[in-house]
């Protein structure tokens, strides 16, 4: 019998995507480490509030995969709402880095279709 050791609902794919998230009244820059159908794991120098609902702006134009090059015109900036579900703060190279897990909420259908196509390409 095969035992499932990873309790995540969705597979994760390594992807470095530039992200901006709304923190207070201004957008803060972050970069993803990986992404799944259910959320994104990112690193940021600014700390979002724990359990906060945040607006994410993902720049998909730099996403690279040989299998999605034919649909490059579809890759654009997308906005997604998400909830901060985990925060870990570490010191790396003399800097404080916040590792943040965000669960996607209320993804628009057109964005869901785009993400499904991206996931299928990996």
Brief overview:
With 122 residues, this protein is mainly β. It contains 1 helix and 7 strands.
Description:
The protein has 122 residues and is mainly beta. 11% of the residues lie in helices and 48% in strands. The chain is built from one helix and seven strands. The protein has one helix spanning 109-121, and strands at 13-14, 18-23, 26-35, 39-44, 53-59, 77-92, 95-105. Strands 2-3-4-7-6-5 form a six-stranded antiparallel β-barrel. β2 and β3 form a beta hairpin. The chain is globular and about 40 Å long. Mean pLDDT is 81; it is low at 1-5.
SSE inventory with pairings:
Blueprint: E1 13-14, E2 18-23, E3 26-35, E4 39-44, E5 53-59, E6 77-92, E7 95-105, H1 109-121
Antiparallel strand pairs: 1-3, 2-3, 2-5, 3-4, 4-7, 5-6, 6-7
Based on the model shown, name its key terms:
122 residues; mainly beta; Thrombin, subunit H; six-stranded antiparallel barrel; 1 helix; 7 strands; 11% helix; disordered N terminus
Write down how many β-strands occur, each being a DSSP E stretch of 2 or more residues: 7
Q: Which percent range fits the helix content?
A: 10-25%
Q: Average pLDDT across residues? A: 81
Strand portion: over 45%
The CATH class assignment is Mainly Beta
User: Biggest β-sheet, characterized?
Assistant: 6 strands, antiparallel, barrel
For the record, the CATH architecture stands as Beta Barrel
């Amino acid at each position: 019998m095969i035992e499932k050791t990873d309790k995540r609902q969705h597979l994760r794919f390594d992807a470095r995507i530039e992200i901006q998230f709304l923190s207070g009244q201004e957008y803060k820059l972050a970069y993803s480490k990986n992404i799944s159908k259910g959320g994104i794991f990112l690193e940021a120098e600014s700390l979002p509030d724990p359990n906060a609902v945040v607006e994410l702006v993902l720049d998909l134009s730099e996403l690279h995969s040989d299998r999605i090059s034919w649909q490059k015109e579809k890759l654009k900036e997308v906005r997604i709402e998400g909830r901060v579900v985990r925060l870990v703060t570490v010191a790396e190279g003399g800097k404080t880095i916040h590792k943040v897990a965000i669960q996607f909420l209320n993804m628009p259908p057109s964005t869901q279709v785009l993400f499904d196509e991206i996931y299928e390409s990996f």
